[in-house]
Write a structure and sequence with these properties.
With about 130 residues, this protein is of the alpha+beta class. About 50% of the residues lie in helices and about 20% in strands. The chain has a 4-stranded antiparallel sheet, with no helix packed on it. It is rod-shaped. It starts with a strand and ends with a helix.
Length: about 130
């Protein structure tokens, strides 16, 4: 669950399928609506007035984001490893005295290791700071 966020009217601040809890002023006082009660998703909230909201399924959103980052890093590591394998084959077919291709292959192996060592949570935190 996220912290309370101020919304001063305007367009809906979250995706349609986000679960939210909203407090807005009424003539009788504050009104609390939550997806656990009568409202299912953010697209059912009237976002045209001043209100505060918080995201109830933030943990699911964060988990999906981390999984996306992890899958992206995995794909990048595989691409670097594939490039390294291609260079090794090229080096083996050619003259063994060509250290240039071997060096490029070793560099791609090192890049694949560095990519695989990256932490998705650290990347997500750094992205939030930027």
């Amino acid at each position: 669950m996220s912290d309370w966020i101020e919304h001063n009217g305007g367009p809906q601040p979250v995706a349609d399928d986000v679960w939210v809890e909203v407090i807005w002023p009424t003539p009788e006082g504050l009104y609390l609506a939550t997806c656990r009660d009568e409202i299912e998703t953010a697209d059912e909230i009237p976002w045209d007035g001043k209100q505060r909201y918080r995201i109830l399924n933030q943990h699911l959103i964060d988990a999906a984001r981390l999984e996306g980052i992890r899958l992206g890093l995995e794909a990048a590591g595989k691409a670097a490893a594939k490039g390294s394998d291609r260079l090794v084959v090229e080096w083996r077919k050619g003259r063994k005295t060509d250290n240039h291709l071997e060096g490029r292959s070793d560099g791609m192996d090192e890049a694949a290791e560095l990519i695989r060592a990256l932490d998705p949570e650290t990347i997500a935190k750094e992205a939030d700071r930027d």
